[in-house]
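fold-stage: in
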Amino acid sequence: MIAVNSLRLRLLVGAVIWILLALAAAGTVLAALFRAHVERRLDAELAIQLEQIAAALERPGTEKLILTHQPSDPRFRKPYSGFYWQVDNLEGPIFRSRSLWDVALRLPLEASPDGQVHRHRISGPEGQWLIALERTVTLPDVPGAYRVLAAMDETELIAAAAAFTRTLVLSLGVLAVALVAAVAIQVHVGLRPLHRLRAGVAAIREGRIKRLEGPFPTETQPLVEDLNALLQRNEEVVARGRTQAGNLAHGLKTPLSVLANEVDRLAADGASQLSAAMRGQIATMRQQIDYHLARARAAASLDVPGARVPVAPSVAAIHRTLARLYGDRELQFAIEIPADHVFRGEQQDLEEMLGNLMDNACKWARGRIAATSRRDDGHLTITIEDDGPGLPSEQQGYALAPGARFDEKVPGTGLGLAIVRDLATLYNGSIKLGSSGLGGLRAELTLPAG
């Protein structure tokens, strides 16, 4: 069963619609051309009969007008056959075909004395419509003019057109079926590379192959190359994760050894100072765990092609969270982030960087925090400021180091700014600290713009 959003279904439906529209237009034009052709042939036939009747009109000597011969077509002699002729003078009909029996045709009131053939649509002897050709004839040395008319039943034309239309509809229907079948085959063949691509992705997911191999059409080759590049990037992420895990193990080795020794000694003599040493080593271990796991997470946060995140909604969500968290301090937030400012990367990474910076500002601010952004030359710079005590210029570089803390009274691990630096560097961005116009610290986070 084909899904509603299937590309195959869309192509087939689009092709069927255009085929039906094209064949309907062609059928309409062909039917109109055929009707016009039949009308021309019937008019030509009537014109010949008209000329025969006009040529048979004579007035020998002083005698009255006679018709030397009648049209040879037997349909003019069969009553109500649908083929009729008539000759009128100023007083009315003087000659008419036997097919009219005892009925006279009503000619248009206005005569056409120019001698040209004129076409009319008049009522027939049985109330049907007739196609009539009329010509005004004058004879030498004979006063007055005579109106000669030849007519045929319009149903002859309608029947011929209907028969042709039936044949045409049947032919176009067969052609439509053939075209739809051809389109279905073409779509199946054309989408075959996508099936190969899907099968290749399934094989990669199952671990049977590592890359998409073989030639692909020009239209899908860029997709194949991007997918292979993404697979290569994922391998690099795994490698970085392993490296970070090794760093974590190395960072924990010494504190764990010391902790083990202190615990052994504490068990041996119960000295109280060893309890304090144990707590210090435990704190060191936690710092190492937090920092190295954060770096491992940052190394796995490589930007995915096509990832775009609006900055304003993320800042607004962090603002709402921090406003509740620090609700007892009545902090004032001034946020000016344009709606069209977009970060080219992962939303989780953006929110982790901004969350650390804004949380740090809330911890140190006296009452005011500002968040602004600007876009320049493909980069987005987000600035977070506060009115706290700030940092001297000589300490601003050290503040980005892991575990850097300047006031133990303020809760935290000292890893927030280091994590922001690592994530920004991963995106080829940067974090810069400085003095704020509000009196406190200013953090400028530069990232790729979407």
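fold-stage: in (second)
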Amino acid sequence: MKDKQIEVFESDNIWKSIFSMVGPALIAILVMLVYNLADMIFVGQTGETAQVAAISVVSPIFNMIMAVAMLISGGGSVIIARDLGSKDIEHAKMSASLCMWGAVICGMISGAIIIAAHNPLLVFLGATEDIAEYAKDYMIILALGAPFLLITNMLAQLLRAEGAVKEGLIGNLLGTIINIILDPIFILGFHMGVIGAAVATVLGNMIATIYFAYYLKKKAIVVNMSPFYAKKNPIYIFPIMSLGLPNAISTLLSGLANSFANQLLGKYGSDSIAANAAAGRVNMIIVMVLMGICMGAQPLISYNYGADKIKKLAGVMKRLIILTVGVGVVTTVFVILYRGSIIGLFLKAEEVAKMAEDILTILMISSPFLGFFFLATNFLQATGKVVQATIISAMQKGLVLIPALYILEKLLGFLGIRLAYVTADFISIITGSILLILAWRSISLTHEKSKKTYIQNEEESVVVS
């Protein structure tokens, strides 16, 4: 590795290491947030609530593509950073090559499945009659661009794992800026509505993919697409994916839960779907900021774990707890204070906007504490505790949330749908915190035993000599 890149991991200034990793990652996640909000904001300017609702209905498809990206990049970034910590460069290159080829193949397969099954998918996603045609157009165009969406989101994380934080950020920024520039031109200027939003998204990702391809050819140290490395052990893609399973399951189940929620909301009309979608997008500000902090720090956790620097790892975790709690509180207060103005970006109808504000207020109950959940998930994943990380991810977005949606809607009606998200959040936060504490105790105990064994061996070696 180049000295400047290794310095990010090796610096004795822990806060500097954290901000070096988290800062660009957080900017990238905020860029992704703007990227996710842009379509709905500009479509909202058309004044057609049905088109806003259509984007919400199709968002689980976008989640599915992102889930595949995280399945590969989540595990790949953990292994690459860990290999670099233990100085196993060749293994890191093999893992990176497998991730690249896996992304290309999975992107094409995902897109083909979505296009072939678009009609039953629309029914499952809860598309009502007045939004079905809009949703179909938006979905098919996104499916055509699935390989580009998958590759760009995966590569940004892999580059952070090899220390190329700036380059990963540039790729994210480039795709998003192109998307934001094209959105008003296509949606409002050419009057293309949701079709224009989808086209702008795909074009933005295509351009970002071209930039990443240039970086891989000219500057990459570990990340590569050489068949030589991929052929060494192609079966190793499955251990890589197993490490990425927690984030992938969380993203996939989030999409499924939104589909079930939309099905339940359908009985209250398309306005309720649009209001729920707008509130969810605003709440995403807090969720993605906290997720960005923890995902950005994950390579730092993996590197120190791989290098067996447990004392430094403890310092990293303590500071991340302080950071996530502080940011969680500040962002929640910000959203509560300005919720009316932010909601107004998506919805022009006053009655629907008021409904969205009420929904958002309920979502805010658990938001300040979500940092504990994301920190637990990323720590467990970075230290190889895949089963535990998968369990809490599945709980928040599936095992707890989906049953809660149906039970609480049955008991409390429309209000119950939103309370289901808060309930799932708190149960997952508590469970994740417990698993994090247990995992840390296990790692510390193993380290102490290894240290004692090393000292005993050294003493015996001195006596023999």
